[in-house]
Amino acid sequence: xxxxxxxxxxxxxxxxxxxxxxxxxxxxxxxxxxxxxxxxxxxxxxxxxxxxxxxxxxxxxxxxxxxxxxxxxxxxxxxxxxxxxxxxxxxxxxxxxxxxxxxxxxxxxxxxxxxxxxxxxxxxxxxxxxxxxxxxxxxxxxxxxxxxxxxxxxxxxxxxxxxxxxxxxxxxxxxxxxxxxxxxxxxxxxxxxxxxxxxxxxxxxxxxxxxxxxxxxxxxxxxxxxxxxxxxxxxxxxxxxxxxxxxxxxxxxxxxxxxxxxxxxxxxxxxxxxxxxxxxxxxxxxxxxxxxxxxxxxxxxxxxxxxxxxxxxxxxxxxxxxxxxxxxxxxxxxxxxxxxxxxxxxxxxxxxxxxxxxxxxxxxxxxxxxxxxxxxxxxxxxxxxxxxxxxxxxxxxxxxxxxxxxxxxxxxxxxxxxxxxxxxxxxxxxxxxxxxxxxxxxxxxxxxxxxxxxxxxxxxxxxxxxxxxxxxxxxxxxxxxxxxxxxxxxxxxxxxxxxxxxxxxxxxxxxxxxxxxxxxxxxxxxxxxxxxxxxxxxxxxxxxxxxxxxxxxxxxxxxxxxxxxxxxxxxxxxxxxxxxxx
Length: 582
What we know:
By secondary structure, the chain is mainly α. The chain folds into 4 domains: 10-77, no CATH class; 86-152 and 302-331, no CATH class; 222-299, no CATH class; 358-578, MetI-like fold, CATH 1.10.3720. The protein has helices spanning 10-13, 17-27, 37-77, 82-87, 89-94, 106-121, 125-133, 139-149, 155-164, 171-178, 181-203, 207-212, 226-231, 233-248, 261-272, 281-293, 302-310, 317-325, 333-338, 358-389, 392-403, 410-421, 426-434, 449-472, 478-485, 490-518, 522-527, 535-544, 549-573; strands at 341-344, 347-350. It has a two-stranded antiparallel sheet. Helix 14 runs antiparallel to helix 15 and helix 24 (449-472) crosses helix 26 (490-518). The longest helix has 41 residues, at 37-77.
């Protein structure tokens, strides 16, 4: 027995797609084309949902691209720290067993020299120095100076290898030792194609034909041979970096360039360790002669070169400790700095007293935002009450005056407050003229917290008035009249009857003003001075001036978390359901 629509769920909800699916499943109905009705209904519902999704897809994509993606990217930047590990990989590896005391051993300096040569050729050493300079002052200049002189490391070995046999300065020799057979074959084909294209260009009659026949295919990416990797591991590793830099950065061919000096030093280290076996023919003879000669080579200490020829600051354990501490691809260092702590080789420590500014800025931001919000409530509530109780024509005219500041540039309004609030400004002049203050006792209303609160209250006041006005317009006036007719005083009628109904508007205005003020930075920058700036001013500074985007992202993330926590507490104490825009 089946239920009728008069006694089943349809009697209360009416016919719905869910009820239709239930009835179709129970009765095993079929559509006109013989398909089970449930399957047909599911197909129709799926098509309907896809059409709805297609309608909102442009807006969804726009929000994801312009709002969500930038936020996620900035959140990731607050912990991203791969610049050190990417540009100093050998150094990071060499420092794993370093205990943090004294200067690292010769092997660490050799690794640093090889990394610096590659990083300086790629012009990345200054970026690494700038990143580490956020943690230890002076590293940026040290890295710049090192980048200028580091290419001399290994020069003594270059001269001795060339003096031993001039073949060592021939790029063809290094191709025989380092390049894989597959890469050499690919390069031969590439050269043949390039020659063929050049010949076709010469035969072309017009400029357009020559342009169309221009050969623009890049040289195949260099590949090391397995033999080189096994027989000469140090040399192969640094030569691979050399070849890639020559191809990518210089747009040349490693088959036509003599290697860096550091490559010859790596060759000396491999041959001194007895490596280099496995080659045949001329390459084997060349390596065998070099292996017999290297014990008599004049040597150099890379450590001494760094300390004596580049800068003695490389003997400072703090420099090496900073490199080691920030060698992980991800770091909490930015967040620690954002709460006046720092990550050091010895662990987490407090910042020096003179650099503890961020907690103070967060406290100041919250305090002044709450003060601005409170000022807007005190000033905006009477205005909104007046607008909501005046005749429509008068209230509309006054509402235009409320909205008038939106038609004026924010910079103009802020600059006007600078004129009004300065010690020789209009407000102080009027107070002196009225005799309220003496000429010598003019008030300091600018470049401090007072100026920021006054200017931002004026700027954000409309955001409090509008939601209050929209809610107050919905409050029936006869409620207050009824309360008075029952014996309530004006204050009791307002406080017990009218005010509770306006609380949703107060809540909406408070949220708007607080959220806007906590992220403001233009007005505090212009009128706040040193004591009236917000944390947002520091975020803007790190994004546009110091370029420390990681710290800016960490500060922004903490600010976002603080706002969400306050929003949660507001919801628990007041209830977000009590917020209304009318």
